[in-house]
Design a protein that fits this description.
61% of the residues lie in helices and 12% in strands. The protein is of the alpha+beta class. It has a three-stranded mixed sheet.
Length: 90
């Protein structure tokens, strides 16, 4: 993660915001007195929140682990060609 001073961030706010949104990379802004902060796009923040929700759900994590184990053994659910077409939009 890149890091810049709060003064540099303030002086080039528009440019840095555009970079964060376009490149989907957070930016750490440091301050001499006070806590540092991180700037990230709303889309990236929402994605992070979804990931945290999944990781904190033990039942869902067990389901994912079971699914991965059966998939590795090629014993998992195999969708039909029609279902694959529906999923991929073909």
């Amino acid at each position: 993660m890149d890091s810049i001073s709060v003064n540099k961030f303030r002086d080039n706010l528009k440019s840095y915001i555009e970079q964060v949104v376009t490149n989907h990379l957070p930016l750490k802004v440091t301050r001499r007195s006070g806590e540092d902060f991180v700037v990230l796009s709303a889309e990236d923040w929402e994605r992070e929140q979804e990931t945290l929700t999944v990781l904190q759900n033990s039942d869902l994590m067990k389901q994912i682990a079971t699914s991965m184990a059966t998939n590795l053994k090629n014993k998992g659910y195999q969708p039909t060609d029609g279902e694959i077409d529906e999923i991929t939009g073909i």
